[in-house]
Amino acid sequence: MGALISTNLQPFFTLFSLKSIPFDYRWRYFAFTPGFCLINTMKYLPWIFSSAYRTYYIPSTHGGPNIRVIVFEPVYGPFSPAKTKPRPLHFTVHGGAFMPGIAEQNADLAQRVCKNTGAVTVSVQYRGAPRFMYPAAHDDVNDALAYFLSPEAVQKFNLDLNNVTVSGLSAGANLSLSASMNHVGMIKAALSFCGVVDIRVPPWEKPKPPGFPTSNPIAFLEPVFDSYAGPLRPKHIADPRLNIIIAPASELPRDILFIIPEMDILLREETQLVERLKKETEGSDRRIEAVFYEGELHGFPELPGIVSDPVKCEDAWQRMIEFLRHSNEKGGWKWTA
């Protein structure tokens, strides 16, 4: 509960203590704060009495506070691999426009992956905008991933570094793919859900796909969603760590599955990235795949059924599991719960 309270209090602390935030951001951030707190609370409360995961705090190497992660470990059945056998690692990052969230935002995903693949699954939370700008969130995510790839974590959690995969939703896809670039060759597969891959263009300039609503009721919040990297955009316009769309295929995970809703302003940049990566990896044994979901909105796998198609959402989750299982089997791991 302490993690939820501190995360939800952070916007108020930022608003009333950080004088450097421009008024143009400040009033929008204030308007978004109730929704921000509601999202975190709704994601956290189902897990409040759960013993499905353990919480750890990873030291930052960039001068920030310790980084909170939650870790799911597989439950072994009679037909599962021996408990002593090293286990795959899956590392997932929540979304939220690079704003501070809580690791439980990806708890559902983490539990699914752990239960269906036998991987030790980690969900990380990070510092966010507008209090912390680029590269704070990227540094936190990279520090957390680096720890779980270290000899200390390998021994503590009995990990198999031949089977390391990552995932992320929206901004989390950017953060997970970026962290992978710091560990070239070690990350075998990645899942990008509605990934933000091109921050060279602000949200209000991204092309709207056919059929996109002409009226966007949260358009006034777009400057807040851009507050993590927007003010630094000119300085980092050619930075592949921030703009995954320009990252070389050789620095990204071996296999990548893109889950792409067609009713999303990110449609074009994700499509462009997929097409380029397919060309760069043509003739190799790498898998670069994209699944497009007609009529679905940004973040649809996590949206309630009244605004998304439950059948399509479940299809996306199942494709995720199958993709990860295939990657792990290539690395010599076969899981039977």
TrEMBL record:
GO terms for molecular function: hydrolase activity. Transmembrane segments: none annotated. This is Alpha/beta hydrolase fold-3 domain-containing protein. Signal peptide: none annotated. Residues 92-300 form the Alpha/beta hydrolase fold-3 domain. The keyword Hydrolase applies. InterPro entries: AB_hydrolase_3, AB_hydrolase_fold, GDXG_lipolytic_enzyme. The keyword Endoplasmic reticulum does not apply. It holds the Pfam family Abhydrolase_3. Keywords: Hydrolase. PANTHER family: AB HYDROLASE SUPERFAMILY PROTEIN C4A8.06C, ALPHA_BETA HYDROLASE FOLD-3 DOMAIN-CONTAINING PROTEIN-RELATED.
